[in-house]
């Protein structure tokens, strides 16, 4: 499959790929790493669809130089990875694990030697289990412990990391991890989970100050966004769509950009001064986009003020997510219109798709659907830039097929195919296609 070249992007546009620690690293017991909530969750029978765990995953902990070589061959200018809090500070507090920091020190140096900017995410959902035992993000103390972890990590790596991301998708961690229980830590609190929203944001704000004490690199947060498509035109349908939009798209952005919490959303644990800490100026807003969400009024007696409904009429990924590239353009323009001058430059910190990629008889992996997906979404970014939105980078999710949370090894997002039995990496046709796009300005 071939596609016409995408029109040029602005000078200095950052082309990258993303991964996360628990999904690729493995090395669960290596060199003093402690347990995370995902270790506990994955080892609980019935939690993961295929019964797998991230104990080995892609074994990136032992094969990271092979993966840096893949990044160099891809030609990207940046690599977004996450640092595993329990590898750096196994108890969440207390002693630092020097061997854990040494691993990230080697990774950062190897990336720089390959001409690739290290982009480090501090929290991609793998909270140290001892902190969860003490209440996790429902406990205000966790925000302070997160800032301490940010401080010690930046003290070691802050002279070389080129972009810091504090939290990845706090809405998803709130909703699936604390609201419905589909993700670790498996709490099912629905709207009683809101303290975990506030404490994540407070931890972000405290971490921003800690990072800037050791590093001149810009600081960001990566939020997940999903444009809302209303089904129905009753007053109840309009109210349901507005409620979901506020929850998914505004709850974690309004406070960051100085607006406080949206009307109707009170975490109940806000103290004087908290909102000022949360609204510490951002250098970049990370935007993760996969698909829009269909919403209508709920049935009578529902515990939620909305009902989610499938979006019909679009191609679908192996996750059964609709492929709607123009939703990304709508999202980016909408962020610009809502926040105006308060909106910092945007980088797309995740964008990608799962398909059932299988090597052919010659060992090649052709994934034309992924190429079409990425082509469409990059064109949507280009269209948003043409409409005046300041977008300065795009990171594909993901470099490697990985361990996909509750879906285990059943969903493949990578530009590189991984044989999970042997660890063998095989670049897919999308790897070559993306290589042809990067660096063209």
TrEMBL record:
Keywords (A to Z) from UniProt: Carbohydrate metabolism, Cellulose degradation, Glycosidase, Hydrolase, Polysaccharide degradation
Single GO cellular component term: cytosol
The UniProt record lists the keyword Lipid metabolism: no
PROSITE patterns referenced in this protein's UniProt entry, alphabetically: GLYCOSYL_HYDROL_F1_2
Top-level taxon of origin: Bacteria
InterPro entries attached to this UniProt entry: GH, GH_1_N_CS, Glyco_hydro_1, Glyco_hydro_1_beta-glucosidase
Root EC class: hydrolase
One annotated GO molecular function: beta-glucosidase activity
Similarity comment: Belongs to the glycosyl hydrolase 1 family.
Protein name, per record: Beta-glucosidase
């Amino acid at each position: 499959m071939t596609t016409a070249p995408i029109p040029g992007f602005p000078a200095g546009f950052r082309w990258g790929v993303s991964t996360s620690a628990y999904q690729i690293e493995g090395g669960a017991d290596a060199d003093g790493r402690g347990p995370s909530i995902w270790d506990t969750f994955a080892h609980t029978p019935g939690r993961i669809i295929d019964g797998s765990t991230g104990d080995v995953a892609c074994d990136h902990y032992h094969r990271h130089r092979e993966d840096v070589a893949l990044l160099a061959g891809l030609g990207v200018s940046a690599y977004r990875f996450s640092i595993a809090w329990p590898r750096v500070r196994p108890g969440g507090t207390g002693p630092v694990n020097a061997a854990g920091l040494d691993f990230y020190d080697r990774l950062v140096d190897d990336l720089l030697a390959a001409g690739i900017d290290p982009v480090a995410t501090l929290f991609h959902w793998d909270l140290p289990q001892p902190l969860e035992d003490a209440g996790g993000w429902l406990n205000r103390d966790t925000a302070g412990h997160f800032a301490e972890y940010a401080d010690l990590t930046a003290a070691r790596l802050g002279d070389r990391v080129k972009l810091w991301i504090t939290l990845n998708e706090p809405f998803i961690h709130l909703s699936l991890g604390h609201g419905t229980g589909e993700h670790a830590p498996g709490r099912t609190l629905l709207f009683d989970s809101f303290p975990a929203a506030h404490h994540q944001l407070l931890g972000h704000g405290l971490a921003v100050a800690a990072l800037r004490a050791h590093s001149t690199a810009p600081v960001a947060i990566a939020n997940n966004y999903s444009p809302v498509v209303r089904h129905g035109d009753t007053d109840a349908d309009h109210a349901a769509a507005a409620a979901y939009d506020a929850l998914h798209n505004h709850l974690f952005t309004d406070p960051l950009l100085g607006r406080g919490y949206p009307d109707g959303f009170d975490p109940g644990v806000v103290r004087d001064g908290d909102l000022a800490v949360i609204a510490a100026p951002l250098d970049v807003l990370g935007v993760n986009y996969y698909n829009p969400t269909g919403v209508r009024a709920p049935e009578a007696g529902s515990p939620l003020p909305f009902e989610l409904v499938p979006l019909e009429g679009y191609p679908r990924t192996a996750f059964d997510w609709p492929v709607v590239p123009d939703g990304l353009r709508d999202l980016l323009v909408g962020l610009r219109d809502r926040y105006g001058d308060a909106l910092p430059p945007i980088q797309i910190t995740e964008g990608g798709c799962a398909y059932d990629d299988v090597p052919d008889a010659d060992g090649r992996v052709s994934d034309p659907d992924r190429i079409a997906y990425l082509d469409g979404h990059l064109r949507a970014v280009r269209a948003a830039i043409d409409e005046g939105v300041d977008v300065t980078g795009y990171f594909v999710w993901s470099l490697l097929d990985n361990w996909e949370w509750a879906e285990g090894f059943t969903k493949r997002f990578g530009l590189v195919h991984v044989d999970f039995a042997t660890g063998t990496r095989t670049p897919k046709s999308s790897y070559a296609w993306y290589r042809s796009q990067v660096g063209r300005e």
